[in-house]
Amino acid sequence: xxxxxxxxxxxxxxxxxxxxxxxxxxxxxxxxxxxxxxxxxxxxxxxxxxxxxxxxxxxxxxxxxxxxxxxxxxxxxxxxxxxxxxxxxxxxxxxxxxxxxxxxxxxxxxxxxxxxxxxxxxxxxxxxxxxxxxxxxxxxxxxxxxxxxxxxxxxxxxxxxxxxxxxxxxxxxxxxxxxxxxxxxxxxxxxxxxxxxxxxxxxxxxxxxxxxxxxxxxxxxxxxxxxxxxxxxxxxxxxxxxxxxxxxxxxxxxxxxxxxxxxxxxxxxxxxxxxxxxxxxxxxxxxxxxxxxxxxxxxxxxxxxxxxxxxxxxxxxxxxxxxxxxxxxxxxxxxxxxxxxxxxxxxxxxxxxxxxxxxxxxxxxx
Length: 366
Description:
The chain contains 8 helices and 18 strands.
């Protein structure tokens, strides 16, 4: 395996480069009979695509998806689904000055050391542009999970740089360019405007939630649901930390507080984040992500060139002052892909298991 395929039964292979002719993916293992068309996928791609506000990269990509195979008369056939997204707004000349130099905080140096060659145009294969096929594939998974289990996904910004955000409600998230759960985002606008003028960047913290999750997803010991979630989330560009449930706050909690008590009416809390022993409890899956500052900035920084000589670099081009601003739909997508794969694995192994005890997670939701 070369690290470009995700999943065991629902397998997604991602291909392409940031400034190549196209990017895309092949989905293998999607159940047949699912109603599917480009419009089902385009909704999530439009949420992720660049150029949607002045606070993100101004690269203008329509991200129009094409279904090349695996769908006949509007339904999935059970055969591989090929999805293609053409690149239409590359500006490769923006990267001519860095072809011989390593950008601090980027994958330039590590790619060069590993492969002996690198594509400097927009980061090539290491670009966050490659998250678009991930979002496209997850739109298929989301539709199947919603129809089969009623599972829904949501993500929002909970901190922008030094600014923590209060949670006012999910209804606000679609109404602003920050995926912020706030009615008034003027403070975020002022913060980012000043940041952009300074030529610098900042990080972000995101919350990702899956609701109406079926019980029993996950495999002991090394394919635990939370372990797979953490692994896949860490594969998202710029993510430097993942928390499940209470996460690092668990350090300061007592066992009498952290352990989610069970009652005839359901769970008392959800410090576990919807996973116990690596297996889903049916409660909401709660995940938090820490995203580093964008390394492409206009402030001069020291580096070295390909011969090891000192140099100074300024990263020009169209870059997000905070890459976390467009990460919400991508984080939802990754969570959906993990759940889709585990749902199919659970159905294959334990689909006929019947447990007489009550579903207390369902009771908790009443």
